[in-house]
Design a protein that fits this description.
This protein is an alpha/beta fold. It has three domains: 3-156 and 283-351, FAD/NAD(P)-binding domain (3-Layer(bba) Sandwich), CATH 3.50.50; 170-280, FAD/NAD(P)-binding domain (3-Layer(bba) Sandwich), CATH 3.50.50; 355-468, FAD/NAD-linked reductase, C-terminal dimerisation domain (Enolase-like, domain 1). The protein is 31% helix and 27% strand. The chain has a five-stranded mixed β-barrel with strand order 1-2-3-4-5. A hairpin with a 2-residue loop joins β11 and β12. α3 runs antiparallel to α4 and α3 (54-72) runs parallel beside α6 (193-204). It is globular and about 70 Å long. The protein starts with a strand and ends in a 7-residue tail after the last helix.
């Protein structure tokens, strides 16, 4: 007889492992199935985020930032260096160790919270008495039954038509994190988050980086003023960014990759690079889930169809994260995972899509929450805007990083904060204050009246809020 569980979670990424832990905290007998393997074939929970996404990319960004500071900025501090070099293999080993620490941490949390972990691929077998029968295909095949099933199977990188990933020359986020030496020339198709972050890593280490973007604007989802500031900074750093291009044939060979494309002006060009990173989005992952066995409904994109509460068309089957609608962000998946576990317990889990922060961990960092100025204009909403440059912030000057600004958008009548957009140092940390403020329906005046420590980067947030009322104090 198969093992019976109150809740079975398929997928151990941010949405899945968090959902499993929260369900266990709420008193449910919970199992989590995940098939990621480490280099030795052992379990490596954490999904794309931990293994080939958020975590390893930040490790490499940190290493490459140290290298760039040593090569270009230490002298300004009176620090002299000779014979600066980079050991890529050691940098990658450190990245791998950071990933392992996170994998091991999740396994520890499962044990601490009494979540039963199954290492393998989970798939539906059939609806069964008291729930659903799930097959676990791993080292030893097992069958378990869950009264409730939470699907958190994530997403996969979208490949270019006619140019599949080989992870040697044509790279997804996975291959981009395992490049064994600094390529002389690196190409990026798509100015997506992972592309820009990985492009920044290898540019800092000496690669000549070219970005080919099909859209006529850079970072189309970002507030236009912020995107222009970022574009200016990246171009100054040496990233070559071509917008409005149409990519044609991609040829991969022993010498690298040749990309034929047409420029925005209609000129035919060929980009020859050693490595090509393709960053054109991600697609929901339901490979091997066997949804047809139980009649689980998918949409035309292959995403699992859910309602506002993450319920699928099947009773007691839920889905969260990248495999459903909404932004493909790890923290969005976590919030949905917690909310679903609480809904199963009869509570009222809540996720506010309008206050989910977005971050790009380049240098300068880019972070935002809420609506952009373009969205407010399109909606016909009357608003006020306020900006403050890091150039006028004392802590930014001391750091030696004064690129960028903080921008507030507030309702013209009520002064409610509608969006906050940051490009500059530590934007990923500064955005949290804006998220909290918006969750509590704060006004720009509220932030302007709060005492911020001096000297701190957060003072730029206060000053931008003051700027909404045209009364900055330091600019």
């Amino acid at each position: 007889m198969s093992k019976q569980f109150d809740v079975v979670v398929i997928g151990g990424g941010p949405g899945g492992y968090i959902a499993a832990i929260r369900a266990a905290q709420l008193g449910f007998n919970t199992a989590c199935i995940d098939e990621w393997k480490n280099g030795k074939g052992g379990p490596a929970p954490g999904g794309t985020c931990t293994n080939v996404g958020c975590i390893p990319s930040k490790a490499l960004l940190q290493s490459s930032e140290h290298f760039e500071h040593a090569g270009h900025h230490f002298a300004d501090h009176g620090i002299g260096l000779k014979d600066l070099s980079i050991d890529v293999s050691k940098m990658l080993a450190r990245k791998d160790q950071v990933v392992k620490q996170n994998n091991d941490g999740i396994l520890y949390l499962f044990k601490k919270n009494k979540v039963t972990f199954f290492h393998g691929r989970g798939s539906f077998v059939k609806a069964a008495d008291g729930g659903y029968e799930i097959k676990v295909a791993g080292a030893a095949e097992e069958s378990i039954t869950g009264k409730h099933v939470i699907l958190a199977t994530g997403s996969n990188a979208r490949a270019l038509p006619g140019a599949p990933f080989d992870e040697e020359n044509i790279l997804s986020n996975d291959g981009a994190l395992r490049v064994a030496s600094v390529p002389k020339k690196l190409g990026l198709i798509g100015s997506g988050v992972i592309g820009l972050e990985m492009g920044s890593v290898w540019r800092r280490l000496g690669a000549e980086v070219t970005v080919l973007e099909a859209l006529p604007t850079f970072l189309g989802a970002v507030d236009e003023q912020i995107a222009k500031e970022a574009h200016k900074a990246f171009t100054k750093q040496g990233l070559k960014i071509e917008l409005g291009v149409k990519v044609g044939e991609v040829k991969s060979g022993k010498k690298g990759v040749a990309v034929s494309y047409t420029t925005a002006k209609g000129e035919a060009q060929t980009l020859e690079v050693d490595k090509l990173i393709v960053s054109i989005g991600r697609v929901p992952n339901t490979i091997g889930l066997n949804p047809e066995a139980v009649g689980l409904k998918l949409d035309e994109r292959g995403a699992i169809v859910v309602d506002d509460e993450c319920k699928t068309n099947l009773p007691n089957v839920w889905a969260v994260g990248d495999v459903v609608r909404g932004p493909m962000l790890a923290h969005k998946a976590e919030e949905e995972g917690v909310a679903v576990a609480e809904r199963i317990a009869g509570q009222h889990g809540h996720v506010n899509f309008n206050t989910i922060p977005w971050v790009i961990y380049t240098s300068p960092e880019i972070a935002w929450v809420g609506q952009t100025e373009q969205q407010l204009k399109a909606a016909g909403r009357a608003y006020k805007a306020g900006t403050f440059p890091f150039l006028a912030n004392g802590r930014a000057r001391a750091l030696g990083d004064t690129t960028g600004m903080v921008k507030f958008l507030a309702d013209a009548k009520t002064d409610e904060i509608l969006g906050v957009h940051i490009v500059g140092p530590m934007a990923s940390e500064l955005i949290s204050e804006a998220v909290v403020a918006m969750e509590f329906k704060a006004s720009a005046e509220d932030i302007a009246r709060i005492c911020h420590a001096h000297p701190s980067l957060s003072e730029a947030t206060k000053e931008a809020a003051l700027a909404v009322d045209k009364r900055t104090l330091n600019f």
